[in-house]
Amino acid sequence: MRSNLGFFSDEKFRSIFFQTLVVGLFALGLFFVISTTSYNLEKRNIATGWSFLQNPAGFDISFSPFLEFKSTDTHLKVYFVGVLNTLLVSITGCIAATILGFILGIVRLSSNWLLSRLVYIYVEFSRNVPLLLQIILWYSILIQLPRVKQSLQVLDVFYISNRGLYSPRPIFESGFSYVLIAIVLALISSFLINRWAKKRQDKTGQQFPVFSSSIGLIFIVPLILFFILGSPLSFEHPELKGFNFKGGLVIRPEFIAMFLALSIYTAAFISEIVRAGIMSVSKGQREASAAIGLKQTWIMRLIIIPQALRVIVPPLTSQYLNLTKNSSLGIAVGYADLVHGFGGISLNQTGQAIECMAIVMATYLSISLTISFFMNIYNRSIQFKEK
Amino acid sequence: MNELNEVRKPPVATTGIIGWLRINLFFNWTNSLITLFVIYCLYQFIPWILDWTIFSADFKYNYLGEQITNQEMCSRNLDPENGGACWAVIYVRFYQFIYGFYPKVEVWRVNLAYVMLAFALLPLLYAKLPYRKYFLYFTYIFPVIAYFLLNGGLGFTEVSTNKWGGLLVTLVLGCTGIALAFPIGIMLALGRRSKLPVISMMCTLFIEFIRGVPLITLLFFGMVMLPLFLPEGIDMDGLVRVLVAVTLFQSAYMAEVIRGGLQAIPPGQYEAAKSLGMSYWRMNLLIILPQAIRISIPPIVNTSIGLFKDTTLVIIVGILDLLGIGRGTLADTNWLGLSYEIYFFVSLVFFIFTFGMSRYSLYLEKKLKTGINMGAD
């Protein structure tokens, strides 16, 4: 029996009808927002367009380790400084969090009850306290360090004070580029050796000392070259002049606070991921590898870790993404990252909120997509391969 | 014959306290060394922290017996040798930490709302509650009651949201964000799995966009850009703008969690529902969603914990939540330099809430596991 609405119970018609309706409503909403926005902008005398990027910023950035920044530089340069600072704290944070997380995850599984409880307490505390609070706490500890005049001296070359960590700055002289080239070549050749050795082992069963030969190539060859060229590297030591240090390399407390808080917070999550990953490898695997006489360290390296990694990598990727997004909290302690420098100060000075926020959001989206892309490639490379 | 008579030593004990100690703490040489080292570190650390937080600390009076009203009167500032933490700051500012700048005469309304919140959560958290159905009715109308109670109207004097602060703002943001994100998240999850390409694409784009940018940029969006999008005359409250941002953020994460639950539903359930002649909405509301939400409750609680912690970000756009009140207190010259006490207190409050939630999610996971197994039998 067909009802009057026969054409409406046709699935194809209904699907087209609803989709057109949604697109229409969306377009209507968009039109409404755009028209009110342009009216509001005009009324508040806010300029539009991208020309503000070329205007001088008019403020200083205290922490810009890669680019020299003066207050006469443009907003575009503020953006680049911000991106570099965001990437710096994200990358160093990811590396530190991974190392700490793996160590803690393995320690958490240790047979020593006391040690594993201790890690458990650390994990619970660091996961359950807001990251922003941890960043602010680390910062407040760091700025309560002694003043510059009474700075703590470590190993005669590092100075720690409430203005940050001062260390000698390496100065590369003309011949140093050859050493860098040698290091790159050594890295490539040890990678090739590794591949060749693996192929040979698959074919003949003969082993090749890959690890020691790679170490030799990467460290000793460039080192010999370094001395042959007459050590083309010197250090500029920080010196106390007046109220502050001159020269040397300075790591500001804002960066240290961000780095510590991000890596300690994320390491707690990573350690739980690692623990779950290792526990997911069935007990039989360990027993079987012990039964064929593998050494304890080999069981871990050749049997357990490769299987655990398949479970670990996907959630690890999302932790890297979280850490990168969380690095935007630098604004709370004045770390000149993308959000604080470009999305904060530049936005306030130019008033061009829409343009600034669009750029900041687009940048974070592309960083996130890049991380996902590379981690997906890595994930594919460690999954089961069927021969 | 001699050899047979020789008495063998009994095997090493593996039960009882001694056995437990042997296996877990002194299994071999390295293990024993580690244990001793950890005990030594704890021996150094625990007395110090206990002394600082409790035994030498000031709670209301300093060591001279005076009531503390500013940081100069803290024992440790009078005599650096004598005294640990100065908890008096929490005591003096306790009202602000819990209610912000809510007028004192009206504060019973906040207290009532806190108590009602507990009653509204009860049937959600505890499924075996007697008369659960009636409690649930209360839960559904609670948001309306809470709105009038806290904000004013219906005979109550109006208390503008810029007077709200402390735990009140933290709880309002956390609870409202989670409660609003839940239905939106369900719609987004259904939309992303929809067969209509336009709807599925729009939902996917929205979810991936929100998940790709940090919450702080969304808060800026709510604070700076949202007023530009609205026609003249519509002036949005600061707290509402932040709530919009927090809700958008949370619904994208909620959608992904619920989508995970939807994916776990076997296709047979869909086919069975369709063969009974159910429409799309009836199928989802009566068959699919109840099952999908049940299995995704633990991850829903986990993202909610994340949101609860992330509500602290609102201090960056100038809303005074618990952490904001803490920072405000630190900026007061009366309480300068008491950062450890204040951050310790704020951390503790957050820890109690989030740790409680994570324990609850573990309990649910365990319950769910047994439930599913029983179903399979």
Structure in words:
The complex is a heterodimer of chains A (387) and B (377). Chain A has 387 residues and is an alpha+beta fold. In chain A, 66% of the residues lie in helices and 7% in strands. In chain A, the strands form three sheets. In chain A, strands 1-2-3-8 form a four-stranded antiparallel beta sheet. Chain A has a two-stranded antiparallel sheet with strand order 4-5. A two-stranded antiparallel ribbon of chain A has the order 6-7. In chain A, helix 8 (283-291) packs antiparallel against helix 9 and helix 10 runs antiparallel to helix 11. Chain B is built from 16 helices and no strands. In chain B, helix 12 packs antiparallel against helix 13 (280-295) and helix 15 packs antiparallel against helix 16. The longest helix of chain B is centred in the last third of the chain and has 38 residues, at 339-376. The relative contact order of chain B is 0.08. At the A-B interface, helix 1, helix 3, helix 4, helix 10 and helix 11 of A face helix 3, helix 9, helix 10, helix 14 and helix 16 of B.
Descriptive labels:
heterodimer; A: alpha+beta; four-stranded antiparallel beta sheet; two-stranded antiparallel sheet; 11 helices; 8 strands; 66% helix; B: mainly alpha; MetI-like fold; flat; disordered C terminus
